[in-house]
# Entry
Amino acid sequence: EAGVTQSPTHLIKTRGQQATLRCSPISGHTSVYWYQQALGLGLQFLLWYDEGEERNRGNFPPRFSGRQFPNYSSELNVNALELEDSALYLCASSGDRGRATNEKLFFGSGTQLSVL
Amino acid sequence: AQSVAQPEDQVNVAEGNPLTVKCTYSVSGNPYLFWYVQYPNRGLQFLLKYITGDNLVKGSYGFEAEFNKSQTSFHLKKPSALVSDSALYFCAVRDGGVSWGKLQFGAGTQVVVTP
# Structure
């Protein structure tokens, strides 16, 4: 069974550009989560999608956005990139059916975004 | 608002000695508690979870965690550490009393096991 896959593995952008990160969840999983792991800051919750809807959002500016497609894959878009957006972006999926459940998350290996 | 704290940035332990990684939490409802581990250049891997029931939870790779409601803690333990346990460990909490409650992670604790 394939795990959570993220692309690209590495992404290099310059300030002001836009970045698009992609995530494919485990087959059968409907929930997709995005986290930012910046150096020294641990994991910061970004977004949570389930059944195509945004269910929860972390304390990030509106230039961080995303969407979930009918096949449950997801995109994270970061507009007007800033230097401090450089981080590892992790995607996770679960079989959560939209409730605050005890489902564990399955993580991808992440996309390393570097903003120059 | 929910929160989770890992008071130690790093824990150093000799191989064969007991390992403890500390975690405390704050939620408004019942806590759903998790431990994850991250090896270098990898995503996070699930270790164990507490939802309800026995306060001592057993997980992968010989790890266990003890839920203490009065102290709002969920410390991760391993009786005998291995060099291969060296990794970054994250505690996480979800507030069971909040619909669409997000999974909140702590800042992480780097575990270094020396031979």
Q: What stands out?
A: Chain A has no helices and eleven strands. Chain A has a mean pLDDT of 91.
